[in-house]
Design brief:
The protein is built from 12 helices and 2 strands, in the order H-H-E-E-H-H-H-H-H-H-H-H-H-H. With 346 residues, it is mainly α.
């Protein structure tokens, strides 16, 4: 559901960039004030890399000629909490945009909102109430599917609304909506099942992680995350460097809907803003469309390399942000402790 710059006017793209910046800024401030969970800091980098790799695998939607991939918002929120999840997903989308030309700079704010903010809201109001009834496989499955479907439906609606407000006449609101919502319902069911499978695995391996997020507490210092971190690191390499080669060739839900309405999945949009931002991405994207530059066919080696390199860069960025927040949190607590006045004697 990555939007391209051509689907947006500069005004809508700019407003949504500000909205997403405010949401992400709030998430950073919230973590800084509360103090990050040190046990989850390594998981921010690892899960960012895992979601990057997972988004490279498009699965076919039977009978439609379309495909979908995980967004990862609910998975991240369930493992890290909604605020760290938003920061990690924003990191994933930034790497995809700048280095792989997936999405655009003008559309970046929309993509963060549609895939990140909407998922965080779905986790808060759907996943969490269901999972709090008891963290067992049944509740995890129901919560995952229900929240992923809701988050994708909300995100898909905002995609249509954003194109309407941008004056994209090639995509009439009603026709576009009637294709976007059903196809993302099907995609949501697939992602929901995949999300539930991963969370059930974590629940059996390290239930403390899921419980701490639901209860808004920190994981006890005696709990080791090493095995879980190593497992997801290996899965990331397997998915990004291997399974990505078997991704569906069908267009994703957004492209499929565009083709159904406009007859094409690639709209052209001129103007100074679009041209300038496009030039920036062309300069920074060293592997456009997840392949070597100039490789229009997209070789297997290029795809595997993009999966591994992209996951590694995402791990460094998301993990680095988590580490920086951890250091800032320690300094804040230390400053607070040193600044406390001694209690008056009675």
């Amino acid at each position: 559901m990555h939007m391209a710059d051509a689907l947006l006017s500069p005004e809508v793209g700019g407003i949504m960039t500000v909205v997403s910046a405010i949401a992400t800024g709030y998430a950073v401030k919230k973590i800084s004030v509360d103090g990050p969970d040190e046990k989850k800091i390594p998981m921010m980098g690892i899960m960012g890399a895992f979601v990057f790799a997972g988004q490279m695998i498009n699965f076919t939607i039977p009978g439609t000629g379309s495909s979908g991939h995980i967004g990862g918002g609910i998975l991240l929120a369930a493992l890290l909490g909604p605020c760290p999840a938003l920061i990690v997903l924003a990191s994933v989308l930034l790497i995809q945009c700048l280095f792989f030309a997936d999405g655009g700079l003008l559309a970046y704010g929309c993509n963060v909102f549609n895939m990140g903010v909407c998922a965080s809201l779905a986790w808060q109001y759907i996943y969490r109430p269901i999972a709090q009834r008891g963290l067992n496989r049944k509740n995890i499955f129901i919560a995952s599917v229900a929240s992923v479907v809701a988050g994708l439906q909300l995100g898909a609606f905002f995609v249509v609304l954003e194109t309407l407000l941008s004056g994209i006449t090639e995509l009439p609101f009603k026709s576009f909506l009637l294709l976007m919502q059903p196809i993302h319902l099907a995609i949501g069911l697939g992602e929901g099942i995949a999300t539930a499978a991963v969370l059930c695995f974590v629940q059996s391996a390290r239930p403390e992680l899921l419980e701490s997020v639901l209860q808004k507490t920190k994981v006890a210092g005696t709990v080791s995350m090493k095995r879980l971190v190593v497992t997801f690191l290996l899965l990331t390499v397997l998915v990004g460097g291997g399974l990505s080669l078997f991704a569906s060739a069908y267009p994703d839900g957004l492209e499929w809907s565009m083709e159904g309405v406009a007859g094409t999945s690639e709209l052209e949009r001129g103007g100074a803003v679009h041209g300038t931002l496009s030039d920036v991405v062309k300069t920074t994207a060293f592997m456009p469309d997840y392949s070597f530059a100039g490789d229009e066919e997209g070789s297997s080696l290029g795809t595997a390399t993009a999966g591994i390199v992209g996951s590694g860069v995402t791990l460094a960025l998301a993990g680095g942000i988590g580490l920086a927040l951890g250091v800032a949190g320690k300094r804040r607590r230390k400053t607070g402790e040193n600044g406390q006045k001694p209690a008056a004697a009675h």
